């Protein structure tokens, strides 16, 4: 269990909402370790594909998840490409995969001093007693544009309309899955970054954390 001195910050939200950047900035500001839990699921998805398997193969996905460690999340360019994102959303629907990754994420959150984690179910499943909870979102069109700009800057070719379709499909899959669906925790503060740049979004997030700590 966390102690009163621990600061656990849960940052949830859909793809390309800005939650990862906000979580990293919060971790740097408070001097806490940070875990992008989405990378875990991306690594599982890629691990299944690297073994020649199908993303719908729950047993294989679970074996990959059981062997995963945070130190395996080093190939950031590959883990953050479009294919990895789609693979992550697919394997995250397997209850066994989520169960296998639950302990890893929980132990990360419970380390002395606290931590910052971002994902889809941090405030509802991984750290329901987090010191501060944020649900970061933005309009689908803005999120698609952010992701489209990120990918095209790296040389990937994708039409904006296809990117928007991907975002909407992932939203529906993440919110509709039976195992730990993406929902805003009842006690999470909503942060809509549609009309914010990163500095404004970080400042708003920091103020939410400070308000939560003062309670």
UniProtKB/TrEMBL annotation:
UniProt GO molecular function: ATP binding; dCMP kinase activity
EC number(s) reported in the record: 2.7.4.25
GO cellular component: cytoplasm
SUPFAM superfamilies assigned: P-loop containing nucleoside triphosphate hydrolases
Main location, first listed in the record: cytoplasm
Substrates-to-products reaction catalysed: dCMP + ATP = dCDP + ADP; CMP + ATP = CDP + ADP
GO biological process terms on file: pyrimidine nucleotide metabolic process
Domain Cytidylate kinase stretches: 9-204
Keywords: ATP-binding, Cytoplasm, Kinase, Nucleotide-binding, Transferase
List of residues binding ATP: 13-21
Family per similarity comment: Belongs to the cytidylate kinase family. Type 1 subfamily.
Name by which UniProt lists this protein: Cytidylate kinase
Source organism per UniProt: Brevundimonas halotolerans
Organism placement in taxonomy: Bacteria, Pseudomonadati, Pseudomonadota, Alphaproteobacteria, Caulobacterales
The encoding gene: cmk
């Amino acid at each position: 269990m966390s102690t009163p001195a621990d600061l656990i910050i849960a940052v949830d939200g859909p793809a390309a909402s800005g939650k990862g950047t906000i979580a990293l900035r919060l971790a740097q500001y408070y001097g806490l370790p940070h875990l992008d839990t989405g990378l875990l699921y991306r690594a599982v998805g890629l691990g299944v594909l690297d073994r020649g398997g199908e993303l719908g193969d729950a047993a294989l996905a679970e074996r990959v998840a059981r062997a995963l460690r945070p130190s395996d999340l080093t190939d950031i360019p590959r883990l953050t490409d479009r294919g990895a994102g789609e693979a992550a959303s697919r394997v995250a629907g397997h209850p066994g995969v989520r169960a296998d990754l639950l302990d890893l994420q929980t132990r990360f959150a419970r380390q002395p001093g606290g931590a910052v984690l971002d994902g889809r179910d941090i405030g509802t499943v991984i750290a329901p007693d987090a010191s501060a909870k944020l649900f970061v979102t933005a309009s689908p069109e803005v999120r698609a544009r952010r992701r489209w700009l990120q990918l095209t800057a790296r040389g990937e070719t994708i039409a904006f309309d296809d990117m928007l379709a991907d975002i909407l499909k992932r939203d529906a899959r993440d919110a509709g899955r039976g195992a730990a669906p993406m929902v805003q925790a009842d006690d999470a503060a909503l942060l809509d970054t549609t009309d914010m740049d990163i500095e404004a979004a970080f400042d708003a997030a920091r103020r939410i954390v400070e308000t939560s700590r003062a309670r």
